Amino acid sequence: MPTPTAPSHSPTYSQPAAASAAPHVATAATGHSPITGGPRPVARLTVDERAYLDQNHGCYRCRTLNADHISRNCPRYLSPMGASATPSTPTSTAPAPRPGPRMVAAIRTFQETGDSTVFAGLSSDSEDDNDPSHAPHPFPPLPVSLAGAHGTLLASALVDSGSPQTFLSEDLVQRLGLERRALEQHSKYTLAMQNQVPTVFTCTHFVRVPLELANGLWAAGPTYAEVAPLGKDLAIILGGNFIYRHKMELGLFPQPHLTCKANPIHAIDLLALSSQPCAAARVAAIAPVSDDEEQLRLAALDHRLRAEFADRFPADIPPVHLYQSPVRHHIELDTPSTVVNLRGYPLPKKYREAWYLLLQEHLAAGRLRPSRSAYSSPSFIIPKKGCDVDPTIAPRWVNDYRELNKHTIKDRTPLPLPDDILSTCSNAQFWAKIDMTNSFFQTKMAEEDIHKTAVSTPWGLYEWTVMPMGLCNAPATHQRRVNEALQGLLGTICFVYLDDITIFADTLEEHKARVRQVLDALRRAELYCSPTKTNLAAAECSFLGHIINRAGVHADPKKIQRIEDWSLPKTVKELRGFLGLVQYLCKFIPGLAEHTATLTPLTRQGLSSIATLWTPNKVRHFKAIKAIVTSLDCLRPPDHSANAAPFWVMTDASNQGIGGVLLQGQEWKVARPIAYWSRQYIPAERNYPTHEQELLAIVEALKEWRIDLLGGHFHILTDHSTLEHFQTQRTVLSR
């Protein structure tokens, strides 16, 4: 089995055989000196090699990982080059290992080569290391017995010295009813099995499980294992930490055996325990994966998928005459005789040329055409950032259809709830985000309604042949079209919010298949995607103003930066903008209402300038909000699985308002936050006695998180002890 990754100084390989000029890391099997007959002198350890041996409980002298001895008592002493080889007296009573290629504990490196993953070893200078033969008996699985809340199960364990940790499959954890505990630091690993593409997974939880041999001859006692998606054929991997803790030695000669020095048994005959090979014996390696390696792999996958679906990522959407989709947008008026005819707006001369070029572009593509309609709505342009210095940046065309929308019968097609999308997507390991190019322009107008879209410009009256921006029912039409295109996939592998599509998966192979499914569906529906705003493979995704990754849901750093950079508002409009942006992040900010309650009175009608109304107390609360957003919590999605930890609802009331936090965990002290909530009192609630305000906080919090709490177990925590007697209170007010 290959061992964990090598120190950082290791060379890069294009193929395993291309290890030219590789620095050697000697082992106990590097051969014997032809002069002295003793161990061959080896190079001194580098700083990186010493650190690596320290991390893996290795011996400085024989260079063995997970050694059962310390360096000064090494039974297989390797002298540094230039020093005399004076092996110490062996202290172990176990049979000496047979030198050979299968006993080499070489430090190995993990690397990328195109689409495949190569595990290349740093070979020693022994000719025996080039022996292409294989061990006559590969290590078969070890039958073990595991105990949990749901009983005892037998499983096949792989004893793998190349694995840095012990892993237990998610399926076995669920079947045993083991309690999951969150890891303080999440770790990424790659699992490589023979004849299979290596997969990357992240471990976020661990379990404690009693383990013993199936025949009862030896018990390991409570064993800590990280929960991993190992698949159906692989139940448990006993890694290097397990081997070191129980002082195990693995041998292949004369047949596979396992010696445990912490127990008075001589050896465990693996062939006698199990003569049936299993998929566990085909594991090549489990090794930590660096962020850089994963980024390279995801970037390569993104490139391949784009090439495969290149027709979905054009530089611009095709001309209208190439559209074949039967979908059309209709404008139904409440009074058919209504005609909207409004005067146009004056045009700033600075942007006249840019608007004219944009008009010609739409005319050439067939999206606009000259009109004789009785309808006329105003239109204007808004320059984009950088438009002044880069003439290639086209301005944004805006149609003022407010009057037309007043008389339009509304299409009530619902948009998905952002919280539902974020909650589901954040449980994945890989994401893709697809942004559709000029999404509204990809749907044609119904021929009988084209004249209603007429807009006035400085160069005359024009009407849209495609669905323009500004129509009240345009979002509903587009959402319905994409929903129909992705029917059967929504909610299971992807979500759609207008022109944004997010795809999520637990494994890289699953992710590739799901992205192909979505792109195939978009191809059939003739929908096009933006090549610049799309990412088909990522370990992090920006969606609906939030950042989703394996740690949970984060506030968008851009929004946080805007709040931090916001100067003290001088007008009501500026303050409302600030409070609106802060409110968007309210579920990340504990006790927000305590601060906004002081600022809200400044937004009342009748005020224009508020520059002179800022008191020291108001300024303090304004700065407090800006300070809070610099250290927002990462929110975890709620877990509703069968073995999920209970929920905790913590509430409190103050002089300004009420608030609470929803957590999940075995104990409230270590539970992780799911969401924060707070609001100000309405005038009547300010007059409630304290115990009723505290009870109000509980009631309102349960309403806020009703969807998450229904059907599960939860606890309510409050700092007001009198509420414990609420159920037995004899007189209760009607409210």
From TrEMBL:
EC number(s) stated in the UniProt entry for this protein:
2.7.7.49
Which segments carry the region annotation Disordered? 1-40, 118-142
Tagged with keyword Magnesium: no
Name the Gene3D superfamilies for this protein.
3.10.20.370, 3.30.70.270, Acid Proteases, HIV Type 1 Reverse Transcriptase, subunit A, domain 1
- Domain of life per record: Eukaryota
> From the Swiss-Prot or TrEMBL record, what is one GO molecular function term?
RNA-directed DNA polymerase activity
Task: Tell me what this protein is called.
Answer: RNA-directed DNA polymerase
Regions of biased composition (Low complexity) lie at 10-30
**Enzyme type, top EC level:** transferase
SUPFAM superfamilies xrefs? DNA/RNA polymerases
Entry's Gene Ontology BP terms: proteolysis
| Residue span(s) of domain Reverse transcriptase | 363-548
UniProt keyword Translocase present: no
Give the record's keywords alphabetically: Aspartyl protease, Endonuclease, Hydrolase, Nuclease, Nucleotidyltransferase, Protease, RNA-directed DNA polymerase, Transferase
